[in-house]
Design goal:
Structural class of chain A: alpha+beta
Number of strands of chain A: 14
Radius of gyration of chain A: 29 Å
Strand order of the largest sheet of chain C: 5-4-8-9-7-10-6-3-12-1-13
Low-confidence stretches of chain C: 335-341
Largest sheet of chain A: 10 strands, mixed
Chains: A alpha+beta, B alpha/beta, C alpha+beta
Mean pLDDT of chain C: 84
Oligomer: heterotrimer
Distance between the termini of chain A: 25 Å
Strand content of chain C: 15-25%
Shape of chain A: elongated
Number of helices of chain A: 12
Number of helices of chain C: 14
């Protein structure tokens, strides 16, 4: 014999106020972990989605990021005509020499942040094919013009299309906005490489070089040739690997998430178990009657477990909606969330709740429901009908 | 002639239950002298418990005057009533209603928490009260370790420990076997006759009339008749205004 | 107070429930206190390594923009300035350790003691630092991280200058929070000269002002002095310099605080649930107590006290356990947590203030959780409950 699901449903309804408190507990636990999870996955997505597996980053040996690298003009020229590099329609190699500077810029809320300003040459847009100008136009060389990544727009003083943005030694005219498919290029400002090097008084014109591999090229051979040149002490990495390495440092964030999720989950589980225990206790006689009527232990166990699981699922739904709302509110109030990137610059991350975050939160809520309901359900099933009825 | 301890004049109590009005008590007048053991009898729903609640200041009448121990209870606020009860009333319930987490002694001590006695004084009085009901030896036991009769005796000790004017008992023997019931009734009788406490008891037990001085019989919220019980003292007579007559 | 035994007995009545609720509250408070250490980490760092009388003068464009070296002498001439030290970012990477970089600077060895007396560097070490061209003074944390010892030779590759220099460590900065690697400016200048280049710039000019009241005027004079020059400067106290350095973490801290608030709210619901269960199950007893003469105030008070005692004991325990918990986390995380994007947030140092906040929050949680059910129980007319009881 099995108990109809309606039995569990009616029981939940009968104790509506208490059940709704339990639902609130689970919902809040879900929101707390899901928001944190979303933060983490947003950061991860931003960093990991940056770069292309067909691009190679060339830096000075020993530099783990282009903020601390430098490259001579000769090195750039030597790399440029190596075999295995893709070429554009006019036969020009897809090699983009870049200069990275980290000036301090004031945010609209008055905080100073270091921004990654990338000095480029027009070839950069061919190499970084995920970057597109979505408003305005590309800057003209040597005319004090810049284009802004989407993440910087509105975050910093003067970071608007058509406005004047002061940083470094100069005042720059914003002529374009670029979209980089959510990658960390969107946290950058792009300017003319030579102009930027002048502004920053850099002894070397370039920090590094990004190049596009030719289809079917032997990338290992190309990278080996770059690294083995005794004149320049260079290091080559696949662009996606380069950014993945930078993302490694978010390991500590995962660590924090676990620290968050375990106690919150246990606490919410205890809260759920509490309610379920009370439900079992209040229904001792009823359980005794059911047992006397011939319902098996397994049936009773299942009914109580189902009830607990159902409550946690409602908690999850409420929590999921709450998470989406909270993320929207946080996004509206705070704008992008700044993280320090490896280049000591600010990586602007947009908080977005992904399906994966919600799936994880679902598993979390279900675990709370099962674990929180198991012991009380087991206790209910274990009650002997005689004892249960005598307690009346 | 001293004031009667209890004096009800034309007392009514009407409840609202949804759209209906329930007339639990209608125009009841009665008086009870100090030191009597009184039984309230009548079928279920006759208004016995309502009357008991009014006498003990737990409830207030819809109409009429309730004067107990010289105080008109109609005018008192909820907290004033609570304070008054703690001074003048001892309560005994059918199901004892001891606090399960407290020992017998602590249960008896409970009403004394509301007094200004210090702890030593409270415990001394609580022990004395337990001795009076013959349970001095079981002071440390919690209610679940005591039999029904013993629990009710602890409840009696709790009711008398503050030395109240009026002891109210709601079917005190209702949950007990005959032997234990007799013991409880004897105890209540002794309280009233030897310690000059007034005891008002609601009961269904037909034998109860053998133990009490006076019986009020209620039916459908109306005081039908008043008669002397077997334990009645010579001087006990229904006093004017004659109980049961409509005013 | 005389009602306290009753409160305790009631808490022990359903031990399992008190344990579950207490466990939940304790865990949550542990978490709340742990998270509160993160924003506190910034303040703590600031107060430990920075000072209000030390002023940083750097290029308006940011610390990565340099200034002419001559600025150092000109800043020294400002009235109120007690000491100056110009710093150049060396960007040294330790070759044997997968080229990790750490904050390495070239500076003036004669003005170290005058600038950073609070670092309490041993005079012997300072003396060697002044005399030996290749001397280096290294922060204790960095020493520990690479297992360096005083007297050891290390080679650093500069990621800023085209040089690789070998240093002899002559002393340490005895402060766990100072990871710096200091070298003589002259050592770098000579190395550059060998390449036919002059070292004529400076990154940051540190200024110490003796009289805190003079700080604003010194800063104003410095800014004014170089206005309309090719390298305009900004001046700020060391505290605000570091504070702005960590400013970008603010949004993250805010999210941590939001999450913390959610956890606190969660625990409030758990506590409220327990309080309402306790009250509901005991409605008969409560009615009896009131019939005996316990006033509504006493009933309300004891019920709220019950909720508060549970929350305070459990939450307080959780808050105190944060000491052990954060120590454990620091141990588990090892040194690797120090140099990531959370930086100063991951010190996880528990202060009595944070524990006090946790305990305070527990008390508030108990109070709020207890109020509604206790009020409900105290408010209902006795006769009404007793009708169900008699």
């Amino acid at each position: 014999m099995s108990l109809p699901i309606a039995y569990s449903v009616r029981n939940v309804r009968a104790r509506l106020r208490r059940t709704s408190l339990t639902i609130a507990v689970i919902a809040l636990a879900v929101i707390a972990t899901a928001v944190f999870l979303a933060l983490l996955s947003s950061l991860q997505r931003t960093i990991v989605s940056t770069g292309s597996p067909d691009n190679v980053v060339v830096l000075r040996k020993g530099s783990d990021n282009d903020g601390s690298s430098m490259l001579t003009l000769e090195a750039y020229q030597a790399i440029r005509y190596l075999d295995g590099i893709a070429r554009d329609g006019e036969g020009q190699p897809l090699v983009s020499p870049e200069m990275v500077v980290q000036p301090t810029v004031r945010t609209t809320s008055g905080i100073r942040e270091n921004v990654l300003v990338r000095g480029i040459e027009p070839m950069a847009f061919a190499v970084h094919d995920q970057v597109r100008i979505v408003a305005g136009r590309m800057f003209r060389p040597s005319s004090g013009e810049i284009v802004l990544g989407l993440g910087t727009v509105g975050r910093y003083e003067g970071a608007e299309l058509g406005a004047i943005m002061p940083f470094g030694r100069g005042r720059w005219h914003v002529v374009g906005i670029m979209d980089a498919a959510g990658s960390s290029f969107e946290s950058e400002i792009w300017a003319d490489a030579r102009e930027l090097a002048n502004d920053a008084h850099r002894p070397f014109p370039y920090s590094g070089v990004r190049l596009r591999l030719a289809p079917g090229a032997d990338r290992a051979a190309l990278m080996a040739r770059i690294e083995d040149d005794p004149r320049y002490a260079l290091e080559a990495k696949i662009e996606t690997e380069y950014y993945a390495e930078q993302a490694k440092s978010s390991r500590s964030l995962y660590f924090l998430l676990v620290i968050l999720a375990v106690p919150v989950g246990v606490a919410a589980g205890l809260g759920a178990a509490n309610t379920m225990f009370a439900a079992v206790q209040a229904r001792t006689v009823e359980i005794g009657t059911l047992r006397a009527l011939g319902f098996s232990r397994a049936t009773i166990l299942r009914a109580f477990l189902l009830e607990s699981l159902g409550v946690s699922m409602i908690g999850f739904i409420v929590g999921a909606i709450g998470t989406l709302l909270l993320a929207a509110v946080l996004g509206a109030v705070m704008g992008g969330i700044g993280f320090a990137a490896a280049t000591f610059t600010t990586n602007v991350v947009t908080l977005r709740v992904s399906a994966g975050d919600l799936v994880a939160a679902f598993v979390f809520a279900a675990t709370i429901g099962i674990v929180g309901g198991l012991l009380p359900a087991w206790r209910a099933a274990r009650l002997r009908p005689v004892d249960a009825l005598r307690k009346a | 002639m001293p004031e009667p301890l209890i004096s009800l004049r034309d007392v009514s109590r009407v409840y609202r239950r949804g759209a209906d009005e329930v007339h639990a008590l209608e125009h009841v007048s009665l008086t009870v002298e100090s030191g009597l053991f009184v039984a309230l009898m009548g079928p279920s729903g006759s208004g016995k418990s309502t009357l008991l609640n009014l006498l003990s200041g737990i409830d207030r009448p819809s109409g009429g005057d309730v004067v107990v121990a010289g105080k008109r209870l109609n005018d008192l606020s909820e907290d004033e009533l609570a304070h008054w009860r703690s001074r003048h009333i001892g309560l005994i319930f059918q199901f004892y209603n001891l606090i399960p987490v407290l020992s017998a002694l602590e249960n008896v001590e409970l009403p004394l928490l509301l007094t200004s006695f210090d702890r030593r004084e409270r415990l001394a009085r609580a022990r004395t009260a337990l001795d009076v009901v013959g349970l001095g030896a079981r002071a440390r036991h919690v209610p679940s370790e005591l039999s029904g009769g013993e629990q009710q005796r602890v409840a009696i000790a709790r009711a008398i420990v503050t030395d109240p004017d009026l002891i109210i008992a709601d079917e005190p023997t209702g949950d007990l076997d005959a032997k234990n019931a007799d013991q409880i009734l004897r105890m209540l009788l002794e309280l009233s006759h030897e310690l000059q406490k007034t005891v008002v008891m609601v009961t269904h037990d037909p034998r109860a009339s053998e133990w009490v001085d006076l019986v009020f019989h209620l039916e459908k919220g109306i005081l039908k008749e008043t008669f002397a019980g077997a334990a009645g003292k010579d001087h006990v007579e229904p006093r004017e205004p004659s109980a049961g007559t409509r005013a | 107070m005389k009602y306290l035994p009753l409160v305790f007995r009631n808490l022990l009545r359903n031990k399992l429930r008190s344990l579950l609720t207490g466990g939940a509250i304790g865990l949550a408070m542990l978490l709340v206190c742990f998270f509160l250490t993160m924003p506190g980490g910034i303040d703590r760092l600031l107060s430990e390594i920075s000072s209000n009388v030390r002023v940083s003068v750097h290029n308006k464009g940011g610390v990565v923009y340099d200034m002419p070296y001559a600025y150092v002498q000109r800043v020294r001439s400002i009235p109120g300035v007690a000491a100056v030290n110009g710093e150049v970012w060396f960007g040294g990477a330790f070759e044997e350790e997968a080229m990790v970089t750490f904050p390495s600077f070239a500076l003036d060895p004669d003005a170290v003691q005058a600038m950073w007396p609070d670092y309490k560097i041993e005079p012997v070490a300072l003396e060697k630092f002044r005399r030996q061209r290749d001397a280096a003074i290294v922060g204790r944390e960095t020493m520990k991280k690479y297992g360096w010892r005083i007297g050891q030779q290390v080679s650093l590759v500069s990621t800023v200058w085209p040089v690789t220099l070998t240093f002899r460590i002559v002393g340490e900065i005895p402060n766990d929070r100072a990871p710096h690697f200091w070298m003589q400016r002259e050592y770098l200048a000579q190395a550059m000269q060998a390449l036919d280049r002059d070292l004529d710039t400076v990154g940051t000019i540190w200024v110490r002002v003796d009289d805190p009241a003079m700080v604003p005027s010194v800063m104003a004079r410095a800014v004014e002095m170089f206005r309309n020059s090719p390298a305009e400067v900004t001046a700020e106290t060391e505290k605000s310099f570091f504070a702005s350095f960590f400013g970008s973490l603010q949004a993250f801290v805010q999210i941590i605080l939001v999450v913390t608030a959610l956890v606190a709210l969660c625990v409030l619901c758990i506590a409220a649930n327990t309080a309402s269960m306790a009250v509901r199950e005991r409605s008969r007893e409560i009615a009896v107590l009131r019939a005996i003469g316990f006033s509504r105030g006493i009933i309300f008070g004891t019920l709220v006290a019950e909720s508060m005692v549970l929350a305070t004991v459990a939450g307080g325990t959780g808050a105190l356990l944060t000491y052990g918990f954060s120590a454990m986390i620091r141990m588990l995380a090892g040194g690797s947590m120090g140099s990531n994007e959370l930086g100063p947030l991951t010190g996880f140092l528990v202060t009595p203030g944070i524990v006090a906040q946790g305990i305070g929050l527990s008390i508030v949680v108990g109070l709020i959780a207890g109020i509604a059910p206790a009020w409900g129980a105290a408010r209902r007319p006795v006769a009404e409950i007793l009708r169900e009881v008699f």
